[in-house]
Amino acid sequence: MRVSTRSPMPGATFWVLAISALALIGFVSGPVAEEYPLAVVGILAFMLVQASLPACRIRTPTPVCPANIAQGYYWIQLVLVTVLVGYFGFSQGVLPHLPSKSAINLAIGVHVVSYLSFCDGLLIHPTVTGRAEWFRRNPYDPAFVRAEDRELWIRTGATTRVARLCEPLFFYREGPAGNLGNYLRTERTVRAILRRYGPPLVGMRQTRLLVMRSRLKSMTYRVGTGLGLQGRLISRRNRRLEVAEIREASRILAAIQVTPVSGLEEGVPGPAAGRALPGVAAA
């Protein structure tokens, strides 16, 4: 993968953080902000993600990409709506009665958690290890072709303890050509998973938004592939490695290439000094 020479915090990110900081001040200054103090967590979560997760930042070169649309949606929900709450509070609207403050706080917490989960994927499937007995008890559902792993994690998430290692230990090469047919089939299955599990977990409204997001991603990749831009779209899915990470990855791969393995001694290529690592992303 090529090394990015851009600043670790692009100008667009600075302005997003600055506007969000002003929104935070605006919320705190609101006449009814003290009645809903937990609402500020939404603004803080959005600022934390933009500051610390480069892969989730707003990307100005492709303003209409699905990731930007999703981040814009969350900005409205977590930042703009929070400011309005600080000044106007919550109104009953079409509801038969106004929810209690504890219910409102719970809804805020769930929304923040959903945003953080969206921005920092919980699991990278090929890296998962666990007890064989667990996998025997929780097999794939063959009905969800090309997204069996997503259905598995949603089905078992409430009853399974999962831990993550922060150190990248997995190498994955993703070609720039992609496979549009496979991608579209995956997204169709994702929508089937959302329709099955979404309503009881996140409600009908959020489920419809997630399904819409999946359709928008499919449309974007279809148009991008038609224009020959699929490589740029695919590159946006991964974080570019830093120079030190590429150096360490090259050292590990070189050590692997010279490690003898019984039965594989014949025809194994030796390490290539200074070989670039296109398509290698942190996992």
Describe it for me?
This protein is mainly alpha-helical and 283 residues long. It has a domain at 1-121. Helices cover 55% and strands 0% of the residues. Helix 1 (11-28) packs parallel to helix 3. It is globular, with a radius of gyration of 22 Å. 17% of the residues are buried. Mean pLDDT is 79; it is low at 1-8 and 279-283.
Quick structural gist:
The chain has 283 residues and is mainly α.
List the helices and strands and how they pair.
Blueprint (H helix, E strand, L loop, with lengths): L10 H18 L11 H13 L13 H23 L12 H19 L12 H6 L10 H9 L23 H47 L3 H6 L7 H15 L26
Helix pairs in contact: 1-2, 1-3, 2-3, 2-4
Quickly give the structural class.
mainly alpha
The fraction of residues in strands falls at: under 5%
Nearest-angstrom radius of gyration?
22 Å
Task: Catalogue the unreliable spans.
Answer: 1-8, 279-283
Arithmetic mean pLDDT? 79
**SS element count, helices:** 9
N-to-C terminal Cα separation, in Å? 13 Å
Oligomerization status of the protein chains: single chain
Largest sheet: none
Strand/helix succession: HHHHHHHHH
* Tertiary shape: globular
Helix content: 55-70%
The tally of strands reads 0
Name the descriptors.
9 helices; 283 residues; globular; mainly alpha; single chain; disordered N terminus
